[in-house]
Automatic annotation (TrEMBL):
Residues 3-119 form the Response regulatory domain. The lineage of its organism: Bacteria, Bacillati, Cyanobacteriota, Cyanophyceae, Spirulinales. Gene3D superfamilies: 3.40.50.2300. One of its GO terms (biological process) is phosphorelay signal transduction system. It comes from Lusitaniella coriacea LEGE 07157. It comes from the Bacteria. GO terms for molecular function: DNA binding. InterPro entries: CheY-like_superfamily, NreC/VraR/RcsB-like_REC, Sig_transdc_resp-reg_C-effctor, Sig_transdc_resp-reg_receiver, Tscrpt_reg_LuxR_C, WalR-like. Residues 146-211 form the HTH luxR-type domain. Signal peptide: none annotated. This is Response regulator transcription factor.
């Protein structure tokens, strides 16, 4: 059972999400919050697995709350769910630890699947956002120092990471580098471990900020 905290300043949206998710036997709504400050307090009290986080709210917005929750409660995943396809919000939410960023017009079945995915540690982004971020159409924050493990990447791993950032599949990478697909998978496993990221999407975003 995945425990969910709903965060939105509009009661109509909260009621709609509750009605949508209540029939799902694998999900349980354990609480609600009307702004980011209350959300942090509720996470401390309720220890939800996943927080569905709105962005623009009074007192504390969802991006600031996401940063605090991800720092203080790393076991809780934040899935941003908003009406705003705002480039800066997307960039900040993901870089500060959000496990996903979806729009509120996401089909119900896709939302449920996304909740399950982020609970398992995967990153979920609305269609088109991954490519926009990789291509640099969504602005990055001022780049901090390279992440842990970056300098430990081998030349081959950096080569594969660069291809991942272009959107290439494992098979396409194998064909490009004239190596076995199993070898590509092994390299990707090493890359994710060295960079301490959940999946190839996060690895690709790092490759954009720190060109290989």
């Amino acid at each position: 059972m995945i425990r969910i905290l709903l965060v939105d300043d509009q009661s109509l949206i909260l009621r709609g999400l509750k009605a949508l998710l209540k029939p799902e036997t694998t999900l349980a709504i354990v609480g609600e919050a009307e702004n980011g400050k209350v959300a942090i307090e509720k996470v401390a009290q309720l220890h939800p697995d996943v927080v569905l986080m709105d962005v623009r709210m009074p007192v504390m917005d969802g991006v600031a709350a996401t940063r605090e929750i991800c720092q203080q409660f790393p076991q809780t995943k934040v899935l941003v769910l908003t009406t705003f396809d705002d480039d800066e919000y997307v960039s900040r939410a993901i870089q500060w630890g959000a496990a996903g960023y979806l729009l509120k017009d996401t089909p119900p079945d896709d939302l449920v699947q996304a909740i399950h995915a982020v609970d398992k540690g995967y990153t979920q982004l609305a269609p088109g956002l991954v490519q926009k971020m990789i291509q640099g159409q969504i602005p990055s924050l001022t780049a901090p120092s390279p992440p842990p493990g970056w300098d430990e990447l081998t030349p081959r791993e950096k080569e594969i990471l660069g291809l991942i950032a272009t959107g290439a599949s494992n098979r396409e990478i194998a064909q490009t580098l004239f190596i076995a697909e199993k070898t590509v998978k092994n390299h990707i496993t090493n890359i994710l471990h060295r960079l301490q990221v959940r999946d190839r999407t996060q690895a690709a975003l790092l490759a954009r900020d720190y060109p290989v």
